């Protein structure tokens, strides 16, 4: 008979439990994370002065900016930035972002995710409020603000895994990880909201709105979220006792356990996570970033004019992430699938199937309906990574899950730049369906190699180097729910 684990009790007192509050705050936090990131991509259209538009220059040019009249008679500042400066501004976010992935994960393991996630988001929100003012000071200032913004937000993603290891029982972790995909939901909601604000109040309102929301969320985060059940001042005794029994507790020196770098770098399951994450994110960035260009230049269809259609992939990805995570946790909890089997099965589905769809895109991509359908389905299916490799670091090494995710996200952060470079090199001066077929073949191979890598080398088993000096009784306590197998 298979070993099973009871589901986390949903309600102890008739009110929200601390775990439920944590889930809500993390979900909102990742929605905000992308809102602080994509607000510029929406506002930049109105920030740059276009001599071809019909707007009236109210004042003479002052330095690199002019004051113009918005179609709704709103006076707003516009800047004379060329295309190169615009792309530099949009891409400089990743300069800082890539630097803090690994340090952010490790710092959360040492001082706690509450401070790393909370202060990073708070400072990023304050910088967002200062963005319009920095643009007035000069182009270099707003570039610097975006670089620091990326530096701060880069630490947030890997920080959340160490918190999950303290709060979320193993059989509920897939669902918890789906909260990270709320970032896609945040992007889908931010675009129309900021578009409305810009149309009525000017481009500055996009930064003020997201910045104020960010500050409000940060205050709530520090008021309601703590690093562990033992530190929470308002947790009920029933919930505290349940979590203390379900999860191993830190000893005095466990937070500062040195990272077994040699074991990490020689571990096939760790590299399976890194390679698969890199392949998945590379494909995601390529599809999301290049979709408007492909549809406009090859299919001659302005997808940006259809807000609902543009948001479908984001919404679909989140819903798929949530549904697949609930299913994976249920199958593992009931003993129908081992952790290893579940992670491999859902990773193969979420990363491998989009690869097959990219092959289909290469052959049917010139048809408008088929092309949009394939792109949307591929991005939706990719949301199932939350039940696959995304939280796998918690399975194999919860003590170093932040470090592992930081390693993986550092590599994948180059995906945005690499995908843009690849498409640019292949289509420069020869933007034809034939060249785009090469792009789709590369995407297909990347997705499939990533899926195969995890299917072959991935694991859901707790690794021995996770707690090399841990008491055997404590280690068994952690292994019990993580390594359930059918017998």
UniProtKB/TrEMBL annotation:
Superkingdom assignment: Eukaryota
Name of this chain's protein: Uncharacterized protein
Organism of derivation: Dendrolimus kikuchii
